Amino acid sequence: MNQMTSRADTVISRPDHISEDEWALRVKLAHCYHLVDYFGWTETIFNHISARLMDQADCYLVNPFGLNYTEITPANLIKVDVNGKKLCDSPYDGNPAGFALHGAIHAAREDVHCVIHTHTNAVSAVAAKPNGFAMNNFYAAQLYGRVGYHAFEGITLFQEEKGRMLESLGDKHILVLRNHGIAVGEMDVERTFFLLWTVQRAAEIQVAAGSIGGEDVILEDAIGEKCAGLTQMLIKDSGFAVKFFDAMVRKMEADRGPCW
């Protein structure tokens, strides 16, 4: 067995049949599941975080259905194709409700290698409003021009909805599922987690501002464009998202102990 070290210096074993690159992705994805739980963004055993395997066409890793996010490890993540067919030997299956959304995005968007779906209270509240995200706070301004909206069609189980979801997403990286929640996607786990954090903060502040009497200060479109552009520039090549992700893993494991 080969060995590798997690960010908390916990030695874990890599099975011989899993490549080093896949194992490294499994470790990051499992940490991401634990972080989503740590921040309180889980929906019990539901919702999904997926990561595409770079060297295996049309395959991605996702959570075993029935496990809490805190029970997910690099080893028990399951591998599926874009249609949700399981491609690994595992006692677990995936949640069919996630395959239509995640499979569609992974199959269609070469620039998106990780997708996170949540429906926290704040995000779901914003998703229930006709106007969606108001780009009038520090975090929302960073999302300017990056948000698509998809009308609610019920639980996302059916293949026929894939095309409509992709059309709603277009070339954007945030899909608001109206009356439901959100899906965010980026080029790797770290950037996707940072995007999720930004979306969550934007929603929380919008909900809080809405509870206070009086009108919001409206930001000009040019300011939103500038903020979104600067944020994209910041995370593109600087390692900013990796630093943020690693710091959050260290904080989580300092509070909770090693994840596995």
Automatic annotation (TrEMBL):
Where is the signal peptide, in residue numbers? none
InterPro entries listed in its UniProt record? Aldolase-II_Adducin_sf (IPR051017), Aldolase_II/adducin_N (IPR001303), Aldolase_II/adducin_N_sf (IPR036409)
Q: Which GO terms describe its biological process?
A: monosaccharide metabolic process
Gene Ontology MF: a single term: actin filament binding
Superkingdom, natural source: Bacteria
Please provide an example of a Pfam family that matches this protein in its UniProt record: Aldolase_II
Q: Which Gene3D superfamilies match?
A: Class II aldolase/adducin N-terminal domain
Class II aldolase/adducin N-terminal domain: residues covered: 27-207
Show the GO cellular component annotation of the record: cytoskeleton
The cross-references to SUPFAM superfamilies, in alphabetical order and at most eight, read: AraD/HMP-PK domain-like
Query: What family, per the record?
Result: Belongs to the aldolase class II family.
Supply the name of the protein. Class II aldolase/adducin family protein
